[in-house]
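Example 3.2
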Amino acid sequence: LVVVRDYNHFELLGQTRDDAAGEAFDKVARVLGYPYPGGPHIDRLAKEGNSSAIHFPMGLSKGHNFDFSFSGLKSSVINYINMMKMKKEEIVAEDVAASFQKAVVDVLIEKAMEAVKVTGMKTIALAGGVAANSELRTRLEEECGKRGIRMCRPSLTLCTDNGAMIGCRAYYMARAGEFADMSLNADPRLPFNAEQIKL
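Structure, written as tokens:
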């Protein structure tokens, strides 16, 4: 969760402490027997399932923080599947997908709405690969509508295109004269610049 002041100024509110939501979707899909990327498979299966069939925990849902944790949820799903196999009971993939997806979407929406309340922002932009999830798109739009919050979301074709996201970011950095020399290397754990974080 990031407060965007303008194209080049951000305030980090919270981030994942372990698996990102998209990673969790991919891993759960894999244990259900579906290939990468897993998100579309979970989304499709969930439409046919009962989201109340299985109770899976919402990671870091309490405590008034904006961080996320999905590794416990992923482990809970895997443990459930293994337990059902050991008991030789039927695994209803649609119910597993719907219940898992609900746990993810519930916590994403809960924290986004809390962030809006705390920051006083009037617009939410949904971004990244999980922004393609139909349940998240629908429910976030409903929650924003109840609160009079404007919601922006990319078209589905842009949700998983990291190249487009990176290119857009680079465009605004270049316009602001922000360039790196040729010694810069890729760093997947690169933090926000210190001056951009004001918690």
